[in-house]
Write a structure and sequence with these properties.
- The complex is a heterodimer of chains A (305) and B (540).
- Chain A has 305 residues and is of the alpha/beta class.
- Chain A has 2 domains: 209 residues, 3-Layer(aba) Sandwich (Rossmann fold); 83 residues, Alpha-Beta Plaits (2-Layer Sandwich), CATH 3.30.70.
- Chain A has 12 helices and 14 strands.
- The radius of gyration of chain A is 22 Å and the shape is globular.
- The mean pLDDT of chain A is 89.
- Chain B folds into 2 domains: 262 residues, no CATH class; 246 residues, no CATH class.
- The model of chain B has no long low-confidence stretch (mean pLDDT 89).
- Chain B contains 23 helices and no strands.
- Chain B starts with a helix and ends in a 5-residue tail after the last helix.
- The chains are: A alpha/beta (305), B mainly alpha (540).
- Chains A and B meet through α2, α3 and α4 of A and α15 of B.
Amino acid sequence: MAVAAIRTSKLSKDYGLGRGLFELDLDVAPQEVFGFLGPNGAGKSTTIRCLMGLIRPSAGSAHIFGLDCIRDHVAVKRKVGYVPGEMPQFASLRGSEVVAYLGAMRGGADVKTVRSLAERFNLDLSRRYREYSSGNKQKLGIVLAFMHRPPLLILDEPTAGLDPLNQREFYDLVGETRDDGATVFLSSHILSEVERACDRVGIIRSGHLVNIADLDELHRIRFHRVEIEFAPGDDPPVSALRAAQGVEDVAVEDRLVTCTVRGSFEPLLDAIHGSTVTNLVSHEPSLEEIFLEYYKENPARALTG
Amino acid sequence: MAAYLLALRLGRWGAAGFGAIAFLVSLLQAAAFYQVAGHTPAERQVFGRSMSLLAAQFTVIVPPPTHPETVGGYVEWRAFGFFAILFAIWALTSASGAVRGDEERGIVPAILAAGTSRLALIASRLAAFATAATIASLAAIAGLLVGVASGGESIGSSAALGAAVVLMALAVCCYALTLLVAQLSSARGATAVAGVILLGLFLLNSFSRTFDGLVRWRWLSPFHYYEQSSPLVPGGGVDVSATLTLFAIAATAAVLAALAFRFRDIGSPLFSLPVPSRPASYEVSRTAVWRVPVLRDLYDRRIGLLAWTVGISALGAIFVVLTKNVVEPLLAIPGLARYFTGFLNGDVFPSFLSYIWFGFAQLLMAGFAITQVARWSAEDSDGRLDLILSNPVSRARVVVERVLVLALGALVIAAVSGVAVGVEAHNQGIDLDRGRLAEASLLLVPFTLVFGAVGALLASRIPRATVGLLGALAFASYLLVQLGPIFKLPTWVDDLSAFKLYGQPLTAGVDQTGLVIMLAIVVAGLTAAAMLMERRDVGA
């Protein structure tokens, strides 16, 4: 049986006043892309910092490829690439120097991999770090994490600051890395991101693991708030909308219809087929809204969250 | 008003810290006066004469005293001369932090986005600092009054308030000048450029006391106007026109700073050279030094190290020249020559140089150590340590590498400044024992490491408070050496000072016991730091 890439057992970090991380049990299999989803302050970064051995857990344990994250932290780092939640300051160093500086701590940076990654994200390494935009700093963080082709990548909100094109490039890179045999642990507060990039998702709220969901369950959890405006003289097909699978909370005000759509948009589009729609807006709800919906369905979970 | 209150809040620790130091120093100096000055008028006259003689050695730093046989004259010389330097440093760091530091931290854009005009922002920062400087100046006066009361005497409240006003005026003037300079330089260089300018203005005034050629230029220096007042001295007072000149300089500099701020881009200086376009590069730096532990960190901070090395070496050479200029006239007085030669066993120049230069060099090296330790704390709080520790390196190795970088940096400074002092001494015809000079210079390395080891220990436990605590420790350590003999403290208390451990190697050779204690502190501090570092939460 393969050793788990990440295994935590009752992992806790108590900051007092109910803040921190509490009794986290996780198993991430090798070659899996695991998303760690939660709103700001939920405990995602605390979990990651425990895994990286940067903070000591109050209780419980964390292992990476069977190595204890605290006791064997140096050996653990040989197997890990890391993107921190916030890139630090490197002042006047050039990007190329930051890569050389941190790469040397691993015995030298792989020049070809660095070049390939920098080209892929169009990151000019000759510029000084303080001249980088936040997006470019994040790109540098990605280069630093991936440059030594580690078997495990621990990424704390890695797409923060990246534009949509670079986000897509990043998701492709994650997929390729998984195909090459690596494991990816990725935290995010954006549902669509983990849905797109991950095989499984752990959902955390207020320091407690709420659920571990596969993609099917994610699709079920996910919903959109939709506003549809129909053309003057065109009656909204209210009955068809109310009957459509996954379409809920239908409300009509003159020519404006609002509703909630769960899962696929196909039934909604079928329901409005033949009507003249002048405007259609879909909002992705915040994680908190998703949690509220989720707890309405699973009140028992709300007690732990 | 909101911007002013925010500026006050951001600067509250500075006001509290510098106020506390000012209170303590003036209290101790006033109390010390009654310990050493004697009680009868005759005793105090003798004391005053000896102080004037002693003061001749220090005119490069502080002006000569007026009526040091009185508590007011003594405290004005010992405390308020030092406050001019202390408050200028505070103004420098506060102003560059307020303008460019807060700009980089995003505070300035947030305030401007909230509807505050740039002029109002500059005005609020200046007003907040003036408030803080007033509080700290009044704290200095409070310390003085308490100290004077302990001797059963009193000082007039108008004289005390006058001293506070003049000190505040100097601080505000330095603050406004830094505000202006910070608009013209890059964010990164603001503190350094303004620091060089303020240091230059300070030295211009100081050196003009020794070098006649500089007298005609000293009107440029705010420190010149500060010295025109002597409110604490009997018969003295506040020089109103000089004090108003300080306020006028402050107002002019603030207006110019506001104008420059209005026309420059946030994040950029008022004037900047166009950056030539060049093709993007995707290559890793091939500079070999990045692959060598310790050297890569030294290389990373090469500009700062160069500045420290050049600055300390230049000051060393200047102190040699000053020693020659100060001591030679004294030796021309037959009575004093007999006194000096008898007292100093014939080695007059090395003795003075040992006392004046190496005493000052210790302070500078302690400052160098504190700046390096400040960087360790910053690495912790800004997340750089996170990224370093995400590599397969142990925390103990990080601690050891940091201290090795400090040791090598101190070695470079000590070696180059030692050579500079030796060469200039040779040029001035001062006969220095080369071996002793080498020992005295190299002994600055373990001395610096004492502060480095204590700093490493603090940074491993409480990184956010490290700089303040280490600065306070250095300050207390220095005060112990200065005031220990005056208050007749037990020898073992004196021995706690790192400055005492250094000894007088230029004249008496290396104090083996002091060296062993310094090395023991370094080893113990490093070991404890490495152990604590292994156990603590990074970034907490």
